[in-house]
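Subgroup meeting minutes
Present: P.N., E.W., G.H.
Scribe: E.W.

1. P.N. recapped why we're keeping a running log of single-chain structure predictions: easier to compare across weeks, and new members can see raw inputs and outputs side by side.
2. G.H. added today's entry (192 aa).
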Amino acid sequence: MADTWLVVGLGNPGPDYARTRHNIGQMVLAELERRAGASPKRHGRAEALVAESRIIGGPKVVTAFPTTYMNRSGGPVAKLMDWFGVDADHVVVLHDELDLPLGSVRLKQGGGHGGHNGMRDIIAARGPEVLRVRLGIGRPPGRQDPADFVLKPFAKVEQDEVDLMVQLGADAVERIIAEGFLAAQQGIHAPS
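Output recorded in log:
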């Protein structure tokens, strides 16, 4: 189905990780599902929570949150791509990005994993061609280990910026689907 889109929010499963930096992709996914009135359910063939909806007047959109740990995201994404017949150019992956300042939203197509283990596993399973919404979480302060930093919740003073990034990330996905990747990228990356 060429008009079906798969939108994947990366994160780790369970309440201990729900509001951590590493789960910002899942937070944006939840906002998309809220906007669409979609209720995720466990998928029978892939380790993921999945919801199906439509953007008003537009194509079918499948939202998915792999219930595996981040570094094992490739298997569920590959299974969902096969199940729903979605090509890589209709897959949007939402993920945290250490190399972007907190609150930044940037779109990317293809390329390497940049040290992100969820993207590394998806690329190993299906190649690098997927579309990405990169959600800036900033670098850790001082000498803090990045692996520890991404598993920490956002600070209270960051919450307004995080809430705005969730909205902008959801807007970016809607624009990709409605306008096409390049138009959405130009709109999102344009200076305000």
